[in-house]
Amino acid sequence: MALYALSDLHLSLSADKPMDIFGDNWRDHDEKIKNNWMDKIKEEDTILIAGDISWSMNMEEGIKELQWVDSLPGRKIFVKGNHDYWWTSITKLNNLYEEMNFIQNNHFSYKEYAICGTRGWVIPFGDNSTEHNKKIYNRELIRLKLSLDSAKKGGFQKIIVMLHYPPTNDKFQNTEIIDLLKEYDVEKVIYGHIHGPALKRLFQGNIEGIEYIVTSADYLDFKPIKILD
Question: Which pTM does this prediction carry?
Answer without folding.
Answer: 0.96
